[in-house]
């Protein structure tokens, strides 16, 4: 049996199935398997999610492989092909690259389609059909059930939802579940506030590196790091500031490889009250014109100073000046002497300014997304057009005892407002008109797509974590998961495109509910099946059993139902859809609690303590919006998962 993947070469399935016998995680190819995808989707499936013979135990001539087609330090291109010659002595292989991946090749390689590459950048996928991945995932996630009967029952239900693409776990689950490797199945991690010391930063950096090396994305809030030029008495010097230290953490993204063509992701946040906030907001601006605009159109000295520090000016040499003057001289000649009007205008601009503008440190913080944590006080100051204080604990004047308390407690508090309420001295570094800071955020977000904004007070008002005494610190890299310190979350999406009766042009709500119910259990099993490598993450994950059930294919659903996005009818349908998902998910979690127990953070040492925790849970900001029957059932039976829903970025 062969499967055609190229006009010239095909996969020998019989040979591949023999190779697969060495890997008990991998399910053999059977005749009914057919889902391979096309184009980028196929490459992503094979490169990122397929189980591979990483040690190349079975690699031989004729094998179908994933490889780095274009070797570029910044932008390598991956592709697919077949081994035509192996040189084990020099650890190289000749590979016939598939037609659709040859456009990046040059010279002789482009003519023949054959490239010579190191075995280090070549991998052999053993799962070439999506059904194999689905079976591995279903097997791995059903394995945590307590009896063989349950394991078989839930393997079948999990596989049915996976192979039909009704339910699509996030990439970490697709790649890791059932693989027997030590990669995490969790997409989202948030670290505690960074301890304000060299040791604290080093430890934080170490843990971020551990998480990213295993495939997780990490969120960090650096608001606990002392501002730039603040006295560091231990070394009798000045701090380089929070932003420079955060850049050091962000650089890990470029250093830590997560397999295949995938690199990790980070979110780095800073509070609006932090004295370094202006530098932070401007730090990723790559457009010198906008920096010049800020210099010329803001009255705030702090913004002007930060823009000036970021802006780089290179004076014209005499030769350059003469050259540009020569170009400008053609302005009044018909046809501009062959120069375009744009070139002449650019030459005039360079002569007017006397040089060329660019930016200092163009790679600064590029390893992370950045967001500003916005407080209620700041937004009120914006609305009222008031001044806003940038402040931080007054470490420069603290006594030895005060510094001891600061070193022990500040990173646990992480909020200058709470710190001040606790009776500790806070220094106001400067004041700024709130609207100037708000305007700066908007300008930079418009012209450099960053920073994002995170309404951290709102997140803490709404989170279910309030019930067990925890608060949100930051979000994961894509922003969909506001998490407490060391919290983690596994993601999955319901494929809404499959939840429509296309003949009747209506949502099949019964099918949707069945998918949600199976999906909640599948995600809950992820928490028990995934490997843990940081004890703090294990304690948090098993303690709150958080899952992130999301959606994909909403646009397709609306098209199939003939509803216009944003219309009154469309909005009503979306409301009903998400209400069904939310209530079904919470009811499914309650049913799981009856069978397996509530998440441990909702269980007290006595029945009375447990009831107090449940009472607190149903009175969190989010749970107050839930139907009464769900809230009452939680009081009676508990609930398996502390959080259940999210809207992560997905596509179809």
Automatic annotation (TrEMBL):
Cofactor section: adenosylcob(III)alamin
GO biological process: deoxyribonucleotide biosynthetic process; DNA biosynthetic process
Annotated region described as Disordered, given as residue ranges: 218-238
Pfam families from the UniProt entry: Ribonuc_red_lgC (PF02867), Ribonuc_red_lgN (PF00317)
Highest taxon in the source lineage: Bacteria
Alphabetical list of Gene3D superfamilies matching this protein: 3.20.70.20
Every Ribonucleotide reductase large subunit C-terminal domain range: 187-651
Chain ranges of the Ribonucleotide reductase large subunit N-terminal domain: 126-180
UniProt-listed SUPFAM superfamilies: PFL-like glycyl radical enzymes
Chemical reaction(s) catalysed: a 2'-deoxyribonucleoside 5'-diphosphate + [thioredoxin]-disulfide + H2O = a ribonucleoside 5'-diphosphate + [thioredoxin]-dithiol
Presence of the UniProt keyword Oxidoreductase in the record: yes
Family per record: Belongs to the ribonucleoside diphosphate reductase class-2 family.
Function, in words: Catalyzes the reduction of ribonucleotides to deoxyribonucleotides. May function to provide a pool of deoxyribonucleotide precursors for DNA repair during oxygen limitation and/or for immediate growth after restoration of oxygen.
Protein name as annotated: Vitamin B12-dependent ribonucleotide reductase
Organismal lineage: Bacteria, Bacillati, Bacillota, Bacilli, Bacillales
């Amino acid at each position: 049996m062969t499967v055609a993947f190229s006009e010239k070469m095909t996969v020998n399935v019989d040979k591949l199935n023999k190779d697969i016998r060495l890997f008990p995680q991998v399910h053999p190819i059977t005749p009914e398997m057919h889902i391979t995808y096309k184009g980028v989707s196929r490459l992503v499936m094979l490169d990122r999610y397929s189980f591979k013979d990483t040690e190349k135990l079975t690699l031989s001539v004729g094998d179908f492989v994933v490889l780095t087609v274009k070797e570029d330090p910044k932008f390598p291109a991956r592709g697919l092909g077949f081994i035509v010659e192996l040189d084990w002595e020099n650890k190289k292989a000749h590979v016939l690259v598939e037609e659709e991946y040859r456009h990046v090749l040059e010279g002789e390689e482009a003519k023949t389609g054959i490239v010579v590459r190191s075995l280090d950048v070549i991998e052999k996928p053993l799962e070439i059909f999506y059904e194999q991945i689905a079976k591995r995932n279903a097997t791995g996630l059903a394995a945590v059930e307590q009896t063989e009967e349950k394991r078989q029952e839930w393997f079948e239900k999990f596989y049915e939802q996976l192979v039909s693409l009704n339910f699509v776990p996030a990439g970490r689950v697709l790649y890791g579940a059932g693989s027997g490797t030590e990669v995490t199945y969790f997409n989202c991690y948030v670290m505690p506030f960074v301890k304000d010391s060299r040791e604290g930063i080093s430890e934080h950096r170490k843990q971020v590196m551990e998480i990213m090396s295993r495939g997780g994305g990490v969120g960090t809030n650096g608001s606990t790091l002392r501002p730039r030029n603040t006295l560091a008495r231990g070394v009798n010097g000045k701090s380089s500031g929070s932003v420079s230290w955060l850049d050091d953490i962000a650089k890990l993204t470029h250093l830590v490889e997560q397999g295949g063509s995938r690199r990790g992701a980070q979110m780095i946040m800073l509070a609006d009250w932090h004295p370094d906030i202006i530098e932070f907001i401007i730090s990723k601006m790559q457009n010198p014109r906008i920096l010049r605009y800020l210099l010329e159109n803001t009255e705030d000295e702090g913004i002007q100073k930060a823009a000036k520090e970021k802006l780089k000016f290179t004076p014209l040499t005499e030769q350059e000046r003469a050259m540009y003057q020569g170009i400008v001289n053609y302005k009044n000649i018909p046809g501009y002497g062959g120069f375009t009007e744009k070139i002449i205008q650019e030459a005039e601009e360079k002569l007017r300014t006397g040089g060329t503008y660019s930016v200092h440190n163009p790679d600064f913080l590029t390893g992370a997304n950045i967001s500003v944590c916005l407080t209620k006080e700041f937004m009120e100051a914006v609305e009222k057009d008031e001044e806003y204080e940038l402040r931080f604990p007054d470490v420069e004047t603290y006594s030895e005892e005060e510094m001891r308390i600061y070193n022990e407690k500040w990173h646990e508090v992480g909020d200058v407002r709470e710190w001040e309420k606790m009776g500790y001295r806070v220094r106001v570094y400067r004041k700024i008109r709130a609207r100037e800071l708000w305007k700066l955020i908007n300008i930079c977000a418009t012209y450099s797509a960053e920073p994002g904004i995170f309404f951290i007070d709102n997140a803490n008002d709404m989170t279910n974590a309030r019930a067990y005494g925890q608060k949100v610190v930051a979000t994961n890299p894509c922003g969909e998961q506001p998490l407490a310190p060391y919290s983690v979350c596994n993601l999955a999406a319901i494929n809404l495109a499959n939840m429509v009766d296309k003949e009747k042009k209506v949502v099949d709500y019964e099918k949707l509910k069945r998918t949600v119910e199976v999906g909640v259990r599948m995600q809950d099993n992820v928490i028990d099946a995934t490997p843990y490598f940081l004890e703090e993450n294990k304690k948090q994950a098993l303690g709150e059993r958080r899952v992130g059930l999301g959606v994909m294919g909403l646009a397709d659903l609306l098209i199939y139902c003939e509803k216009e996005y944003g219309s009154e009818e469309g909005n009503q349908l979306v409301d009903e859809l998400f209400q069904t998902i939310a209530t079904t998910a919470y009811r499914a979690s309650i049913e799981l609690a009856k069978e397996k127990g509530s998440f441990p953070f909702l269980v007290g040492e006595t029945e009375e303590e447990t009831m107090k925790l449940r009472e607190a849970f149903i009175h969190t900001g989010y749970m107050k919006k839930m139907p009464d029957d769900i809230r009452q059932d939680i009081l009676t039976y508990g609930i398996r998962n502390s959080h259940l829903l999210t809207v992560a970025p997905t596509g179809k």
